[in-house]
Fold:
Amino acid sequence: MARCKHCSKGGLFQKVDKEGLCKTCAPTVTPDIEKHSNVIYEAMHVHERAQTYDEKLAALDEIIAAARHLEQYESKGIDSCNPPPSLVLSEYSGFRDELVKQGG
Ligand SMILES: [Zn+2]
Structure:
């Protein structure tokens, strides 16, 4: 018996994919995770190269918002990005606090 990690529906005839998602959830959840993971990776790059306070802050806010969004999946045991969103969130929230302290 399988149970979907996202909607928690399970049953004898329930089928889930390798991420543990049923066919109702997979088409919405999988692209949503992909989209937000890409936002995080891109914003990490932007953050690394950013020269100004405003640029850095904007990139950090983007990373934090996307990681918060992905945390809902992590809490259900669905793999999203690597490193996991909770780790990204704590690390980049720290960077943001430092930045604001220094330049705000
Ligand atoms: Zn489902």
